[in-house]
Amino acid sequence: MGYIQGAARGFGELSGGDSSAQLRKIIRYFSSNKSFKSSDGVLNHANSLLVKAQSKLEDEFKQLLASYRFVLLYIHYILNMREYSTILLSGMEGLCDYKAVEPDRLFDGLPNSLRPSADGDGSGKSPMPHGGHHHDDSETAAYTLPVLIPSRVLPLLHDLAQQMVQAGHKQLLLQNYKETRYFVLEESLRKLGVEKLSKEDVQRMQWEVLEAKIGNWIHFMRIAVKLLFAGERQVCDQIFQGFDSLSDQCFAEVTVSSVSMLLSFGDAIARSKRSPEKLFVLLDMYEIMRELHTETSFKWKNSSLIETIFKGKACVEIRDSAMGLTKRLAQTAQETFGDFEEAVEKDATKTAVLDGTVHPLTSYVINYVKFLFDYQATLKQLFLEFGNGDDSNSQLASVTMRIMQALQNNLEGKSKQYRDPALTHLFLMNNIHYMVRSVRRSEAKDLLGDDWVQRHRRIVQQHANLYKRTAWTKILQTSSAQGLTSSGGGSLEGGNSSGVSKGLLKERFKMFNMQFDESFLKRFGPLVENGKNPQKYIKYTAEDLERLLGELFEGKSMNEPRR
């Protein structure tokens, strides 16, 4: 009994873990020696003390864990300017010699390609490429995990967790860990700017606002998985070392809500109404999800980040959700790509191009196709994973050809809106020439091939010849000498010794002026007069010509002063 009293007196001087260990020894001893008269009293007293010791053990674990509830307070990232604002961390300092991470040191976790540039302008901004391509370096760059809990504190937390498990308080341990770390992740993501948006919220947003949010989401996914969740996984594994199933369960319960908040936005985008302008952001989103599914980093080399960070049976739902989003994004991107081809062929805009120059639809489609070639690798991957087994290069070439053919079909339909046959051919000549020239100057030439270019150059030439024949044949006929001379070869009334009829000549000039006015001036006169450099094409005014012609027949030179 004196031994028990000594243990009771020393209870306040021991840690919860030490007290629990001693009391469990005492309880085992007296439980196996019930012959002692005082066994029942000692056991009751020891059990009472054990409850207090375990409560103290729980408090120690909670307080130590709570001392490092560092929350990422603020990070602002503007995708198209690659601007990082200050990151601040706040939290309770558990030990006097532990210092919070300096704000500028947090960028050390990012690869050099994703850190703020010292070469930016005065605003701190630095240019970056399109959202879908700024990650090329980051896919193979090394990320440095943030120190969420100091390494010297983790063994203490591990010992406390081990003693709680041995005491049979595994569920209590799980609850305490979840309550503390769950808050850290949720609050960190909230301060990052992550929002939980529904499909309806996405549908109501203006495109410019939504596009900016998608750009931020891509960045947040990379930061959350590669730094925040990876760092939390490391902490969890070290605290629960030796209890793998418990470690997986704790990590799953701590992260499931945060992951859901991130994936729900991507899912809302993937399920929203399709439109051509969304294709590129869908490809960007697919790229980041595929990057997280295929990249290996940190100390894990044999499996992807998603599979390694969210390992174990407890995280299977999270892994499935991430893979499900990746497939939905791929499917939606493919469907949007198909929609674009159909939209081009069925475009019914009545935008008039009075002078037969390049139609807005032509420039839009060509720019769209050019931009698609920035995503060649991603598109080929889509065809490879979700195609019919054909070569991804040939599939991309086939789709591109169909888009170009759809554009040509639409242009042929629009050309019929012209009442003037000459403008019909001029319109097709200009637009198909624009297509050919654009293809020759881009990567599309390698995909479509020289045969496509040569075939369409011939089409351009055909329409050019038809335009000249339709627009200028009548004009050229008026300047022909045929029909101007008399059949008899002698002098005629109103004629001259050469046999040319002045009346016919006058009529020819009149017809020439009328045909020229109809074929050129009415079509292109306003365009030239109102253009940027009319003086380049208009050298004389009507008054100048009248004066010069008058002086011509008076036999004066231009330098001779007028009377």
Task: State the shape.
Answer: elongated
Structural class designation: mainly alpha
State mean pLDDT (0 to 100 scale). 74
Q: Please name the CATH architecture of the domain at 147-334.
A: Up-down Bundle
The quaternary structure here is: single chain
Structural description of this entry:
The chain is an all-alpha fold and 563 residues long. Among the domains are: 2-66; 147-334, Monooxygenase (Up-down Bundle), CATH 1.20.1280.170; 350-477, no CATH class. It contains 18 helices and 4 strands. The protein has helices spanning 2-9, 16-31, 39-66, 154-166, 170-192, 199-204, 207-239, 244-271, 279-294, 305-309, 316-346, 360-372, 376-386, 392-415, 421-440, 444-478, 502-529, 542-554, and strands at residues 71-72, 77-78, 83-84, 89-90. The strands form 2 sheets. It has a two-stranded antiparallel ribbon. A two-stranded antiparallel sheet has the order 2-3. The chain is elongated and about 130 Å long. One of its GO terms (cellular component) is exocyst.
Which features would summarize this protein structure in a list?
single chain, mainly alpha, Monooxygenase, two-stranded antiparallel ribbon, 62% helix, elongated, disordered N terminus, Exo70_C
Please outline the helices and strands.
Blueprint: H1 2-9, H2 16-31, H3 39-66, E1 71-72, E2 77-78, E3 83-84, E4 89-90, H4 154-166, H5 170-192, H6 199-204, H7 207-239, H8 244-271, H9 279-294, H10 305-309, H11 316-346, H12 360-372, H13 376-386, H14 392-415, H15 421-440, H16 444-478, H17 502-529, H18 542-554
Antiparallel strand pairs: 1-4, 2-3
